[in-house]
Write a structure and sequence with these properties.
The chain is of the alpha+beta class and 86 residues long. Helices cover 16% and strands 23% of the residues.
Amino acid sequence: MQIYVWRHNKTYHSHSMINEPCVRNDFYLDAIAVVAAASKEEAVQLLAAQNDGWRPEDLLELEPHVYPADKAAVLFTDVRGSIDHL
């Protein structure tokens, strides 16, 4: 078992990126999916089975971060709107 983390940010998406994968059917700026599965394909199938708008064909084009489920690890951190002033 492994943990698969996809993050796709379209905040600065432009026409020059028209062929870039789009991981959801709805409009989004930042999409994140974290799935525990035995393989990348199984993880994508689990997301698709939710019928929540995830696009399996595009998820398969992107390489997720993969973490073994049996080791300690920081899986995800997120800081938004931070201004480094020091």
